[in-house]
Each structure stands twice: as structure tokens, then as C-alpha cells.
## 1
Amino acid sequence: MPERNFPPPPAATIADDELLEGDEVVVIVDDFPDIVGLLREFLEQRGFPAVAAGSAGELRQHLATGNVALVLLDIGLPDADGMQLLPELKQSRPDLAVIMLTAVTDLQTALVCLRYGADDYLTKPVHFADLLTTLRKVLEKRRLTIRNRQYQRQIEQANFRIQLAHQLAMKMNTAYLSMVELDEILNAILIGITAEEGLQFNRAFLALFDEAGETLEGRLAIGPGNREEGGRIWQDMVGRGLRLDDLLAKVESGSGRTDSEVNRIVHALRVDAAATDHLLIRAVRERRSINVVNGHCDSPVPLELLGLLQEDSFVVVPLYSPSRALGVIIADHFVTREPIVDERVRALESFASQASLAIDHCRLYMAMQEKIKELEEVTAVLESNKNLLIEAERYSAVGHMAAQLAHSIRNPITAIGGTARLLARKTDNRDLLQFLEMMTREAEKIEKILEDLFSFVNRSKPVCRRMGLGQLIHKSLLLHFRSMEEKGIRRMLRLPEIDPEVEIDPELIQQALVHLTRNSIEAMPEGGELMVEVLVEDKEVRIVISDTGGGSGTADLMHATDPFFTTKQVGTGVGLTLVKRIIEDHGGSLRLQNRAGGGVRATITLPRAV
């Protein structure tokens, strides 16, 4: 057949390649093959795939097996009336467009066709320009109707999702406000992610950074350990009619369900924060979600993570506050194997933002409670030991002053008194005797004062009893709590898991610890770090007190425990002397050393109780 030149198409609102989608076609229904062939050739030249049908039966076959968008339907068919087919076509295929073709130019016939659902009406012989215009107009109307319905459905779905998200946010916020323990908050977060009224993920894992921010550690998880179990859990929840409020209430009451298998998985999850190329650390560091699909994403996926989760499709969403990274949420569809679409990821991101605030606020609350508890302990210790610091220094000073007085005053006073008594026996002069007797009496008074002073500070043997060191060290540090807070000194206490027992006089050992701690604090006027560590060996226990102050010269350390030796502008210099004496009275030793990085290390060695 020779190629025909058809008239150009008119301008369109929607491009021709958008009027039909996928494998949609136009069906030309007419019992005249020449007309069908001509129309089909014309439409295909204009980019509209077309097929022919010579009867109503063939039309039904095309409708059953093909994707028909529009039908050019002749009224007079050998096996049916085209007008009578219209209700059937419209009922079975509401989106099907129909243009009627007929040689009858009767207005009433056209109106009946339109009333039965035809989109337009053309009379034979068909002009190609009119056909193309009508075809495009009808297909545009059809496409706009379908798109409008799709958009309406999307708007309704979006509105429904917004309502669900709002309801979920309100319920979760109520739950967060009623919970104070971090584990309760974490459990509530996981329930919100996996519940039917929540985000509907099958499983969820929570990993948080440790206190120092050096390690990302798996903390808690929820979900089935295997796919069969997931089906049973779901049926159980449906059968019992459990809703989100019920599940959150169980968490708050402490009766929430713990899934051993998923928690075994999450507890095995540990990632060094320095591993910046690791998928989980990258998500936190870049503060973006990462959707892993079939083991692949825009970042390398660690094989050990895939093996641990036993799932190759999951989403990682970071948890962070304005000041620091908190951790990550890992969620998947382990049971249903549904793909995790962008919409679900965005919903989880919004949920994670609220969860991050809840975690951060919970930690701040816990820190505040810990601080309050610590302050209460400090107040109680200070109240019960308020005179300990003053008494320890006064006792030490008086004792060593008495030692010096013994050498500096007692011998001269004894000589003066003895000489006065000797002279009194050798003279009869009343006036002279009066002065000599006065000298004798005053010398005796001074000797008596010295004897009383010696009696007051007389070294008593320690009253020892078997006890642990941990609580004693803790109380000694609490006595200096305010001073350390004011100077910005960080304190670190490292005790063995089993508190070692020693035979000590607790009051004397606490005096020694108080003196050493105070010396370390005074060595760090601009702040620093105070470390107290207890080391246990076979036959002895060592208490090591280290500071980051300026240290002391070698000569100063050698004389530090000498009576009245001091490098301070204020002080008696007898504290370390008292400490040394107390430790030695317990059969131990005191050693002072300069630290390599600055500061002084004081080591108390005591015999271990047997």
C-alpha cells in the first residue's frame, strides 16, 4: 500500500507519548476491513498503537487479553449493537474511553450514545484531522481523570499518614514523659517502630555510644528471632487485641516482653567510633539515613553486620542531639520481606528525631539525679565529719610542734628552773629569794604545760579492725567534693571488683587519705584530674593517689615527710609527716613520686588481711 500523507496533528496539552502508558493500545472496532486498516495506519503513524476488531466478540477478546485505553466503536456490528455494548464496557472498564463511529447523522442517536457513557461521537466518513483532535481530547480527559484520581488517593493517603504520625507522636510523647529510666525509654522507642499503630517495621535494633563516646554498643532490640516466630507473635497480638497504648503500658509497668534472640544479636554489636568507614559510624557522622537493599548501598556494607542481622535489606537512621551523637536505629522487614520505601525511611527519621530528644533528656535527668544523690551524700558526710579536716590538721600541727618544743624549749626551761632552785639554796637575801622562787614556779608551769601537751598528742596504738577500703576512700573523696567542683577538678576512682580487706583503724586511715587528697587538690589550683586507684597483690594492697599538678623537685620530695618542711606560703608542713606516721603504725609505707606527665603520685602500701 502506498504511503499516504495525513494532515499534521493539532497542538496538545499533554504530549502524545504521555496519553498512553506502558502497553496500552487503541482498538478499532468495525466490520469493514478497509476502514479499519486505514484508521490503524493513520494512528500508528501518529504514535498510537492500534489493533483491529471486526466484531463485538473480538473486542471482548482484546479487552480480556490486552491493555485497552480507547475503543473506536462502530454502532453497526454483525453480532451486536454498538450502543447496547456501551453500558457493558463502562461497567466492566470504568477508565475505558469510547468514541462512537457511525454513518447515521442523527442527533438523537449521538445523545443516546453520550448518555450511555460514550466520550465522543464521530460520523462517517471520518476526517483524519477531526479523528486526531477527538482522539487526543478524549485520551487527555482520560489521562487527567486517572491522574486526578491517583493524586486524590495520594492526598488521602498522605493525610492519613500525617494523622497516624501525629497520633503516634502524641502517644510516644505521653509515654516518654511518664518514664524516667533509660531502658524504659528505649523499649518504648522500639515498640513505636514495630507496632501496628506505629511504623510497622518487623524488627528494630538500638545501638548507643558509651559514656566516653568511644564505642557504639548494641543496647536493646525487639522483634522475632525467626520468620515463623514472627507469624505466631503477630497472630497472638491480633488475637489479644493489643494496641500501642497497651504495649507502652506494659513497658511502664516493667512487664514488657524481651526477645532473647534479637537481643543476643544486638548485644554482639560493637563498633569502634574511630572506624569512620563503618556503615553505622558513617550514618552517625554524616547524620543521614542509609537504606541497604539486597546488601548494597552507597557505602560499603560490612559482611559481619549482614551475618549478625541475618538480613540483607535494612535501614540505618542516626540518633543525635544538638551537642553529640547518640547512636543508631536499625530497622527491617525481616518477616514480610517488603521493600523499605523512601516514605517509610522519612517516617522513621521523624520518629528518630523525637526519640533522640527523649534519650538526651533522659540522660540529662539521670545525670541530674546522680548529681543530687552525690550532693546529698556529700552533705551527709560533711555533717558527720565536719570537724575532721580541721581536727586532722590541728592534731598534726600540735603533735609536731610538741616534738620541736621538746628540743627547743624543754632543755632551756629545765636549766633555768634548776639554776633558780640552786641559787635559792645558796642565798639568804629575801628580795633575791623572792625572784628566784618566782622563776622556779614559772619554769615548773612551762614544764607542766609541755607534759600536758605531750599527753594530749601522745601516739596511741591504732585500734584496728578488718574492713574494706572502697567505702572509706569514697567518703574521703566526698569530703573534698566542693573544693574539686570549685576548681574544676575531675575525679576518677578505680576499685577492684572485689573490695580488698585490710586490718586498719578507719579513723586514722581516713585522716591519712584526707591529707593526701587535700595536697593533690592544692597542687591543681587551675583544675586537673585526680585519680584514686586500688591495686591488690598477694600480700599487700596499694592505694595510689595521682594528680596532674606541677609536681615537686626531687629534693622537696625527699624531705616532704619531715616535720615542718613545706614549700607552701601557708601551712605548717606537718600533714605528710602525720600521714607517714599513721601508715607506718599500720605496718605499711608511704612513697611519693613525680609523674612523667606532670603531678605527683602518692602510694600507700598496707598489709592485706589474711
Note: The longest helix spans residues 128-178.
## 2
Amino acid sequence: MDLVPALEEPLKQPLKSVLGPATAKVMAEHLGLHTVGDLLHHYPRRYEERGQLTHLADLPMDEHVTVVAQVADARLHSFASAKAPRGKGQRLEVTITDGSGRLQLVFFGNGVHKPHKELLPGTHAMFSGKVSVFNRRLQLAHPAYELLRGDGEEAVETWAGALIPIYPATAKLESWKIGKAVQTVLPAAEEALDPLPPALREDRGLLPLPEALRKIHRPHTKADVADARSRLKWDEAFVLQVALARRRHADAQLPAVPRMPRPDGLLTAFDDRLPFTLTEGQQKVSKEIFDDLATEHPMHRLLQGEVGSGKTLVALRAMLAVVDAGGQAAMLAPTEVLAQQHHRSITEMMGDLAEGGMLGGSEDATKVVLLTGSMGAAARRQALLDLVTGEAGIVIGTHALIEDKVQFHDLGLVVVDEQHRFGVEQRDALRGKGKQPPHLLVMTATPIPRTVAMTVFGDLETSVLDQLPAGRSPIASHVVPAADKPHFLARAWERVREEAANGHQAYVVCPRIGDEEDDPKKAGKKKSPEDEAEKRPPLAVLDVADQLSRGPLQGLTVEVLHGRMNPDDKDAVMRRFAAGETDVLIATTVIEVGVNVPNATVMVILDADRFGVSQLHQLRGRVGRGTAPGLCLLVTEMPEAGAARQRLNAVASTLDGFELSRIDLEQRREGDVLGQAQSGARTSLRVLAVIEDEEVIAEAREEATAVVAADPELQRLPGLRTALDALLDEEREQYLEKG
């Protein structure tokens, strides 16, 4: 909710600028704040108490920070330099403290005079600057500062009350200057239009919006902050959920062809041949999908499940049901390796049921075709012909499926694998290929906490597979601290040799390929202090393959796989590995999803700290897919106390992907999460945290659904309509339209 009409006055306009033109320009360019409403919704990140000092001990490197601290001492030094050869250069070093740590400030040249007079020992002030390291100590060079006199002067009026708001700021505009600008526009908060229906606000005891805006910017007590935040969280959750509820409501009005399997058709023939019984979870989820397919409105369902929980089988049964009912099903995979893998495993699972129209094919059979960008012209022509005539009931492909040339006889179901890798436009283009909107099943193997699913995929119904099929082996995971304990790494390579000696296979995963030309843009970039220790570049597949073949894994057959290889070569490497001809596959994350080699029992992930939590969980799911137990070794050189090691310890300690995705989210900001889903649009969430605020999101969803059911056009709620228009600028509106 970015704007409300009364607050649409620009911060910068030729005749009467609300703020000085320079300040307004910086706000627009660096913080994306253009109107009075934008500024009022730029909330403080945290609050400092005048008597309580910040934790200097926890300052993040290389970030712009604002701290409130007390001057411990100040010393003026003279030095000689090129500009001041006779020892007339001046440097002022000020040490500030907050009880938890000390921080050095340094000022040079003519810039020393004012702080030398003002920053006397015992003075309290706010300091703002970028944290850097000099001589192994943290420092702020030339920070901006604002004295906190506390004696009835201007500072006290500006920072009314005991709590000092600290705003998300930039080097060009310090937190206290933003605070003063907010002070200027705060009276306009009285005119803010309230998006919440009055009954909802009263039932939940929430503050009116103008009061919430006043209290978030100028709180007198911590209770003021808590009340304001709980009100503003409701705004964010509710407006977003109304947008999604309207989308669901509109979808429910669309027509679709109901698709019901024949009692003794293809699906029954397939089920009869399965060598195992479906898990309870697979049966339950299949029923939810079949119920949706039988309705006259398009299914929109998200199927999420643990690595190896059998999502592909559930999706295949849905596709067979649609083929039974006379339609066609398309499965969209993010990479050629994965599309080929799906095609291979689906044709193997179906056997002669995938040989429609061929000698030896079953009478219920259909044709399963593959369509990728790198296919030869003849194979491609045949695949396109099979689709347009309806000969092929199932097609599996990459985004080559979306091209204009591709036409279907009767597209009834679209299955999108690994949803987060597809742009909205791509899914939309495929859905547009049906005569009527096809049913949509979106699959992801990255488990998503329920609240994120409700926020990001709130327009989809959700099904979860959380049971692993019988016979799957547990995976043991261990962190290998290569820098502290090099013998652990030597032992890791021994374990790989032992597995190979027992007839099993191994993956070694690296973050980089290794044939990149050095990017001149990157070469010139200054290193962050974290890199000061000359942190080496991430390990690369091609280098590692060479070292291992000559060293610890000498005598084993080692092959490499990465994204820049020719597709036929990639396929040949995967076929040899699947057939057991290769002992060790050294790869990038191209093996992250969908690759299924039950004989692979061990995975070594080098530079594991360079991968995200969910990615590590995905990768680990490639081993332990057969009857022998799996082993995953996370190799890192990161120090034990750091955040990277904690992340790896979390991955090693649990196989529960939902738990890991929560940890992952708590460590990242959910702006990243919403950003990737909202086509990169900046996140609308400012105070709502999708993990902490589960209850608010769930309740807001219920309220939003009820409001939209009663008044789809929101005619009785003009404030809510305005807030929605602001949230759904054109970019987001298109995103929601396309889903």
C-alpha cells in the first residue's frame, strides 16, 4: 500500500516543494520515495533509546549504519603526506563507546575542525557512515553526526520522546535527515484513507491509520511502536490477500473443460502395472487434483513436496487422467537436462503405454514426445505434428514449448516443474495455447512454509507431499571443516573411494564451471573487507576434476557436467552415469533438480557455504534414492563461529525441507522471496515478516476472501480500492493477471 490520494502530493515539484529540491531528489533516486505518502510509509527500521547505546560489537561490515554512542576520547594527530609535506596534515581520531564495544571514527584535513570542537569526551551523538576495517579494527571514516544535547534544544524537539527512530538510509541522506523530513509531512497523516473495513478494525482493536502513522514515526513508548506495527502489518497482509482473493475469484469464473479419467482407460492400465502402492500422501494429493480436474473451472494448484517424495508420479497420473478424457498434457521443465530426464523416467514408468501408434504399443497407449530447443529439425517436425494432430497425449519440454509454432490439438493440463525458475510470461504463453484455459499444476521441490505459500502463491490451492516412499534410505549429512581439519577432507575422498569399491557412485558439486573469462568489470571492483584476506574464487568443476583425477580419486572414472556443455554431450554424460559406467560425476548445480540415479550414494559439496540452504537441500536429495544409505559431505573453509557455518550445521542437522526453508527465510529478508515471485517488483512488505506473522497472514486471508465474496468490485470500500491500486501498479497487476 504505497499511496493514498490525500498523500499523493509530490515531495518535489516546481512551484511548492514539500522538501528542499536536493533532499527530494535524493529520496526519489536512492530510496524510491516520490510522494508524501511514500515518505509516511518509509518506516523506521528500529529505535534507539537515548539512555541506551547500540551494540557496536555487532556492526555489519561494509554496510551503511547509524549508531548512537558516547565519545570516549578524541585525539588530533599531525602527519606528513604528499599534500602536506611539512608534517602539517591533520587527522582526528575519535573513539566512541556504547558499553558493548568501541569504534574508531576518523576525520582528515580541513574536516577535523568542527568535530574537534564538538566531539568532546562524554558527548552523546548519532553517527552515520559506512563500516570499514583499518589495521584490523572497525572504523567509520568521515561519518556524518548529529549531537544529542537533551537540553531543550532543537534536537529534543526533532527526536520527540525517549525513542529515536533509525530509518533505512543511504550515504547521501542520513537517518536523522529523513526523520526531519518525516516530521515536516507528518500532519498529512491525518488525511490518510483507511483501507481496512471499519468492522474489521474494530473487531481486532486496531488503531486508526493516521494514529498508527504518527506512532510509528514518533513513538513515546515501546507500546506505541507495538500498536502501530500491528496495525500496519494488518494493512500489508490484508491488501495483498485481497489482491490474491480477487484473482482467485476471477479465475473461478473462467470456463474450463472438466477432465475425468475413463474407468478402464490409460490411468487404470498404468496403476495396475505399478510395482508398489502409492503412499497415503500421494493418494490424498491425487484425489485433490482429480477433484479439481473434474470441475468446470481451471484448476490452479501448487504441489510441493520433499525431494524424492514422488511428485513426478502424482503429476504423471494427473496427465494420464487428462489424456484418458481426450485432452493433452504438457510438462514444462526449466532445463534440457531435466526435460530429458523427465521424458526418460516417464516413458520408462509407462512402458508400452507410451508407445501409442507403434507396433507393440498397448491399445490404451498414447505417445509421449520430447520438445527442446536443441533437437534436430526432423525430430522437431515430427514432435510438432504429433502435438497438432493429437497423436501425442503428453509432451515434455523446455520453454521451446512456448514458441508460436507449437500448437496443440486440445491442451487440457499444464504441469510446470520448479515454478520459481519460470517467468510469469512463459507460463502465461503456455496457458494461452488451450482452446479454453487449461488446468494448471505447479510443482516445486523447494518446500515453502505455509505462510510464504499463502503470500507468494496465494492464488493457488496448495497440496503438500511430506512422506517419503517406502524403501528410501536415510541420508547422513556432515560438515567437513577443510581449513581447521584438513584430514577430514582427506577422509571424505577416502569415503568416495570406498563407495566406488562397493559398486556405488558419487557426485562432487562445485559452485563454478571454470572456463569463464575474467570479467573486466568484476576485476576492477573493490573487494569488501570480508575479501581482504584475499578470499580465493569459488572452486570450479574443470579445475577440481583435473586435481581429483590426478590425486585422491586417481584410477576412478571421473566425468564433468555443467550448463555450458552441448546438450547432446550433457545427455551422453548423464546416460553413462545413470548406467553406472562413471564412478564420479563432478558437476555444477545442473544436477540440483530431478536427476535420479539410485546407485549414487555419496555427494561431496565443495565450498558449500556458497550455496543457499534450500539449494543444499535440493542437491542432497540426489543421493539416497536407492536402497543403500546416502551420505552428504558439506565442505567449507569458513570459520566455526560464522553465520555460514551455522547455516551448514542447520542443513546437516535436519532432513526436513520445511524446517530448512523456515531457517533460510529467517536468515534472508522476505523481500527476496516476494521479489522473485513478483516478477522482480519491489516487495510491498515493509513491516510484515512472512515467517513471524503467520497468524496475521492466515487471518487476513480469511477476512479478504469473505470481503471479496461479498463485494468483488470493492464498491463499498473506496479506501481499500485506492490501496489496491497503489499496491498493484501496472507491473504487479500484470504479474497477478498472469499468475
Note: The first strand starts at residue 46 and ends at 49.
